[in-house]
Each structure stands twice: as structure tokens, then as C-alpha cells.
Here is the input.
Amino acid sequence: MPQTGIYRIDHDSHRLMHEVTLSAGDVFPRCKQCGNQVKFELLRTVNDQSVVPFRDGEILEECPETAKAHKQAG
Here is the structure.
């Protein structure tokens, strides 16, 4: 369960490092190509109120547990 903040993401040799903002309570997303081999490093925390919720993208996808929790809450 991450803290709300900006994370550095390192993939398993197929993509360069990039950054993403994640919210506290969410499970780290998976990479569509390297799955759970992706590594996250907290660069800095941010205020929960200023964070847009994570959405699937070209590279990362929401973990099934987080997607299920979001559907139940919404």
C-alpha cells in the first residue's frame, strides 16, 4: 500500500524509468509487459487532495484488487 506521492518506476529492461502519482491505500499497478517485475521508489509525498486517481495507461494497468475496490466504492 503506497503513501500518496510521486513514484519513480523502473521496468524489467523494456522501458526507461518514468514517474507516476499514486494514492495511499491503492495497490501498486502492474506493467502490461513485465507484470510484477516493475519496481517503485517514492520520490516525494504529496497531499491526498491534490492527486488525480490512477487510470490504466499505455504501460501500467490497475491491479485487480484496486479495480474491484474502486467499483464497490463508486
